[in-house]
Amino acid sequence: MSETALEARHLFKVFGKNPNQAIRRLKAGESRSAVADAGTAAVIDASFTVNRGEIFVIMGLSGSGKSTIIRMLNGLHEATDGSVLVAGDPITGIPASRLREIRRDRVSMVFQHFALLPHRTVAANVAYPLELKGVGKTERLAKAEEILSLVGLEGQGEKLPSELSGGMQQRVGIARALAADTDILLMDEAFSALDPLIRREMQEQLLELQQKLQKTIVFITHDLNEAMFLGDRIAVMRDGRIVQIGTPEDILTDPANSYVEQFVQDVDRARVLTAANVMERPRPVVSENAGPRTALKQMRDAFMSATYVVGRDRKLIGIVTDRDVVKLIRRGQSTLTSVIKPAAQVVDEDEILMNLFIPAVESPLPLAVADAEGRLVGVIPRITLLAALGPGSGATGEINLPVLPLPQAEVDAVLDDGWTAEPSPNSPHTSNSPHTPDAPTEEVTR
Amino acid sequence: MNVLPIGSWVAVAVDWIKANLDGLLSVISTVVSFLVDGLSFVLLMPWFYVVILIAALIAWLVRSWRLAIGTVVSFGLIVAMGLWVPAMQTLALVLVAGAVAVLIAIPLGIWSARNATVRAVLKPALDFMQTMPAFVYLIPAIVFFSIGVVPGLVATVIFALPPGVRFTELGIRGVDSETVEAGQSFGATPGQILRGIQLPLAMPTILAGVNQVIMLSLSMAVIAGMAGADGLGKLVVEAISTVNIAKGVEAGLGVVLIAVFLDRVTASLGSLGEHPASLLGMMARRRTARRLAAVPAAAVATPELPVEEKELQNA
Q1: Nearest chain A Cα distance for residue B282, angstroms
Q2: Is A114 left (phi over 0), alpha (psi -120 to 50) or beta?
Q3: Which chain B residues touch A176 with a CB distance below 8 Å?
Q4: Quick check: ipTM above 0.85?
Q5: Taking CB atoms and an 8 Å limit, are A155 and B186 in contact across chains?
């Protein structure tokens, strides 16, 4: 999976009258505005690699050079300096016919404003790359129909593009790029011209398609939420330079500089961070072989009314409640098996926070997080979930817990005689008490 | 005093061409007179109402039945004024001149759209051709080809050429750059992009240019008459020299009637099949209806998610 599909090495693109001079000066360390007299530097020293099968998002505001970069990746813009390699083969400085061959067979593109041919039917548009490859008419139209159904446009092939809605037109654009059957797909602000509802739908469909087809996708966008939603890795651009490359979580939790930090401030964290990003060490949890007394002790220490039960391999089996366990102890039984109930709310570790709120509210315990094999890998107390939504290091750092209320007995005593007896040594006053390092109060009061 | 005798230099150049390129000139002359004479022969060969019916049919095909009726009426008027023969000679001249101008203008327009140097050279040349008083072209043309239809046609072509070149260039440059990039990004050659994307998308603009070329050719018909070309123009020139109001008005009216017909028909070429009352438009609608009837189920069951579901996803 980590094989390199596309590589950019020290790419420069300068528009204007004296690009080579501008590049010499940029390399010597002059700033973009300092070399403005020699030309407009659209891309400055951009280097990155795109792995096979990943979605690599290049994100930046307009004028940051992202559209120029993507056009250098298939040679629509010739790089002023530096090189682009497609699966190891350079596409910079090669003859035009060889470049056309690479575009036909290896790299296809989806455009912001669809760029469909308005005088051709949808099917003929999709078949266009095949036509350029010299595929016969019946064969390419059959293939076009097949790809149209893949993007959810079956039976629309005979229409003209102008008869379709924006979202459907862009599906035709994607179908056309897929018809070229290239490993690499360049998408230039592909969903930016669509309205928000359709955009979200298209993003989900793209991820679905990607799961099926495993293409290498370079996606350009100015929308950080879109970048975070789609990207396996994201490159953030500013003023022609790449300022940070990393996974969405990297960029959100560890911004490289204040610019990126400012940028990610209004990101919808609930859609980016996953359960695995915010979960804590699972507790309370007991082994299925443990006795009722162990379970009760666990619950007492964690201030919970129930505890998770795991089997061997840490597979989640269910929960037991304190009431049931107390009954077991009174009856003198030594195994928990008879009172284990299935855990109602278990979420996958890849689930985004957005989808955790309802389960967290319904769960009597901190929300259980399981991996693909069903092992209990962590829990998410509600307070952690809330803290993760705020900016800053809340998602991963320490959390200040609210002060626990005084024990009921103590309060009663004060109300009765106006004087506080010495608190019993094992009842906690505050969150700093050694017995309750991270027990959320809300669970205690249930 | 004439310090800079540009005129004499041009005269010398014209004499030189006449003396040295006589072979080429006589070939042009033969071909052009063959085309114009041939076309006017074809137009005058059948009964006049056959020609009128064909013209009306063309009008219905591209525009509407109303234009067809208008065509019958106006051509009938020409016949009634006894101008049928000169009118057909003028029509032949205009059609040949327009065709030659378009054949030269479109390649020139394509070339200048793709090459900045060509554009830089062509632009002042086109300005010159369009603003130079058209009569001036007649002088060397008559020197080269002597009196008759040929010098009139050559002057007409030079005068009518510029809008054809300009509209073609404008149309090709006006094609959405993303669409052209789409062609490039799928590996199309420049020729494939020109034929498959640029020309089809620029066609309405190019055809507007063709319309302009034909209208300018018609406006040159009178000037061609001064050079001795047969047709309505010759009648107008005769009317001027004899101060014959009746003849002048009738001949002028003939030009106007032909102009209206040519303008409406060529203007419709840019939007073929889109005029609801035209024969082609009716056929296009019937095709669409058949196509939609063939896939009713698929068209209804578009795979868009219902609205509530979409809202839930975004909630």
Answers
A1: 18
A2: left
A3: 186
A4: no
A5: no
